[in-house]
Amino acid sequence: MGLFDKDNEPKSREELEAQLAKAKAFAALTPEEMAKKMEEAQKAAQEAFDKLTPEEQARAKAEAERLMRESEQERKALLEEAQKLSGIKTPRFCPYCGTENTGGNFCPNCGAPYKTN
Ligand SMILES: [Zn+2]
Predict the structure, then answer these.
(1) Distance from C-alpha of 20 to C-alpha of 48, rounded to nearest angstrom
(2) Ligand 1 center to residue 53 CA distance, Å?
(3) Is residue 39 classed exposed, middle or buried when 0-12, 13-18 and 19+ CB atoms within 10 A define those classes?
(4) What are the residue ranges spanned by the domains of the chain?
């Protein structure tokens, strides 16, 4: 994962799709796998990051934060989809704030994921 690689911007549709596929694979990882990948990526990124100019560093940071947010959103969507497919029942009320569940896998009020096991 070269989040901070300055030559890592997609140059063609194929490259863009390859990066998207990589992001999707990343989003499907377990939390443990993701933590390990993050650690490796951060180590590699820091080395590349140190070689950039301050302007490039600021730009790379903003881009990395954007990628992280998208990755997390995609992960949540995949989790919801997986739970829907496996037919797991969610609780009627949020265990954290007590808001009535409207049928999703996340609380509509506080956003907490419903534990189903
Ligand atoms: Zn809640």
Answers:
(1) 22
(2) 44
(3) exposed
(4) 13-85, 88-117
Residues in contact with 113: Cβ distance below 8 Å, sequence separation at least 6, in sequence order: 76, 79, 105, 106, 107
The Cα-based distances of 33 to 20, 28, 29, 42, 114 in angstroms read 19, 10, 6, 14, 22
CB 93 within 8 A of CB 101: yes
Distance 62 CA to ligand 1 centre (A): 30
User: How many whole angstroms from its chain centre is CA 80?
Assistant: 14
- CA–centroid distance, 105 to ligand 1, in Å, is 11
pTM of the predicted model over 0.70:
no
Distance between Cα 82 and ligand 1 center (Å): 21
Task: Name residue, tokens 């490796």.
Answer: 40
Taking only the tens place, the pLDDT of each residue in 59-68 is 988 998 999 8
* CA of residue 29 to ligand 1 center, whole Å: 25
